[in-house]
Design a protein that fits this description.
Layout lengths: L9 H4 L4 H6 E7 L4 H7 L3 E8 H14 L10 E10 L2 E7 L12 H4 L4 E7 L4 E7 L2 E6 L8 H6 L8 H8 L16 H13 L5 H6 L1 E8 L25 H10 L5 E10 L4 E11 L3 E6 L2 E7 L4 E3 L9 H5 L22 E5 L2 E8 L9 E6 L5 E5 L3 E10 L13
Antiparallel strand pairs: 1-4, 1-5, 2-8, 3-4, 3-8, 5-6, 6-7, 9-10, 9-18, 10-11, 11-12, 12-13, 14-15, 15-16, 16-17, 17-18
């Protein structure tokens, strides 16, 4: 049966892909290629091979944002998911209105050596369909307004005796005649999927999108110099000498961004005439969640989807994740490495038997006092944060444990 846009209505109708469609998509099919070869050609870095399906691609992409490697609306990198799908074909996807897959300039290292069919949409309802062959653009048109380049479509031959216009007519979903009548429905994205299949013979099915094993990576989109390790994790280099600057400690802190932590946290707060003390054992994964247990049992659980449970009746006093990710306490408009002078020297200290470098940071909120933070000299993990009336401190610290996923399952 001939493929038509109706074969791709799942992209319009399935809630699983509603965000992808609304926020912008790229789907590229690359002939006679490998995923590794495509990533090498694009000089991609921070490669992660744990992205199963579009859901996994989204999770890995979010990790880049959480780690500060790919800031939202960045003009210096774009995120791609690339998968080998058999027969010498590679599937490349993007989301959030990124556009590398339809850019002659950014995609040049790939299109110079491979036949490529790509389609794109963004949050502003712009769209594009591009077919490259032998390093040359065969056709480029806006699917939502396909009548803008019908002359080109009529002149471009495809396999057999059909022209590109013939295939566009066959798949349906494109508006191929000028009309003043308002359009009630739009199927140009689904039509783009179908046209890509007719040109390549490769069906990008819902099942393929859900099961493909994507390598998710960052691709540079500028030739401007970037700060060292701006878009990849720095190596973990312990700072055990006599002196360490904030720039050095900050890099060590960043190197711990993917680290799991199992430890005890003690929170002490000065209440004026008394001291309030809370102690919890916790397990923390930067992408999967956090679990806290105190003397009375399970205190709280949060998961990677942003859902949270606590025993009540009040929210917990302790939030170990906010100590481990302490950079989130300050204004995110200022890079954490610049919150204090990068050349300032730390003070050597010890926290429960672990050597640490301590720095004084400005108040977190207006009217508050400075915060002294001690970072582990071996790993960069914040071990203590202290103000005039509040101290958060870790002990019995174990890093990089493999934590089971059900540890972060919320109770019924």
């Amino acid at each position: 049966m001939t493929t038509t846009y109706r074969d791709y209505l799942w992209f319009k109708d399935d809630d699983e892909f509603a965000g992808w469609r609304a926020n912008g998509h790229v789907v590229s099919l690359i002939r006679d290629a490998t995923a590794t070869g495509v990533l090498d050609a694009l000089s991609a870095y921070s490669r992660r091979t744990r992205g199963i399906g579009f859901e996994g691609f989204g999770k890995r992409s979010l990790e880049f944002e959480l780690l500060g490697l790919a800031p939202m609306m960045s003009q210096t990198v774009q995120t791609v998911g690339v998968a080998d799908i058999g027969g010498g074909w590679v599937l490349l996807i993007q989301h959030n209105s990124e556009y590398l897959g339809v850019s002659d300039e950014l995609f040049k290292p790939v299109i110079d050596n491979h036949e490529v069919v790509s389609h794109f949409s963004n949050v502003n309802a712009n769209s594009q369909f591009v077919w490259w062959r032998n390093g040359q653009r065969q056709i480029s048109f806006e699917p939502m307004f396909a009548t803008s380049d019908l002359d080109g479509a009529r002149s471009i031959p495809t396999a057999g005796s059909s022209t590109l216009f013939d295939l566009m007519s066959d798949v349906g979903g494109f508006e191929l005649e000028e009309t003043d009548e308002p359009r009630a429905e739009f199927f140009h994205i689904e039509a783009s999927f179908a046209l890509a299949e007719r040109l390549t013979g490769i069906a990008v099915t819902k099942d393929l999108i859900e099961t493909a094993e994507f390598t998710v990576a960052l691709v540079p989109t500028t030739t401007e110099p970037q700060a060292p390790f701006a878009h990849e994790m720095p190596p973990r280099v312990p700072l055990l000498g006599d002196r360490a600057t904030w720039s050095e400690v900050h890099q060590l802190y960043r190197s711990a961004g993917e680290t799991t932590v199992h430890a005890t946290m003690v929170l002490s707060e000065d209440q004026g005439d008394s001291e309030e003390r809370h102690e919890v054992e916790f397990w923390y994964s930067p992408f999967e969640g956090m679990r806290q247990v105190d003397a009375d049992g399970l205190l709280s659980v949060s998961n990677g989807s942003g859902l949270h449970w606590h025993r009540g009746p009040y929210s917990p006093h302790t939030w170990p994740d906010q100590l481990i990710g302490i950079h989130t306490r300050w204004d995110q408009q200022t890079p954490f490495r610049l919150v204090i002078d990068p050349t300032s020297s730390g003070t050597v200290t010890e926290v429960n038997g672990r050597r640490a470098w301590e720095f004084a940071f400005p108040p977190v909120f207006y009217g508050g006092g400075p915060t002294a933070v001690a970072f582990d000299a071996h790993t960069g993990i914040p071990l203590r944060a202290e103000t005039s009336n509040r101290t958060e401190e870790l002990n019995n610290v174990t890093l990089d444990e493999s934590l089971p996923e059900d540890l972060f399952t919320l109770p019924d």
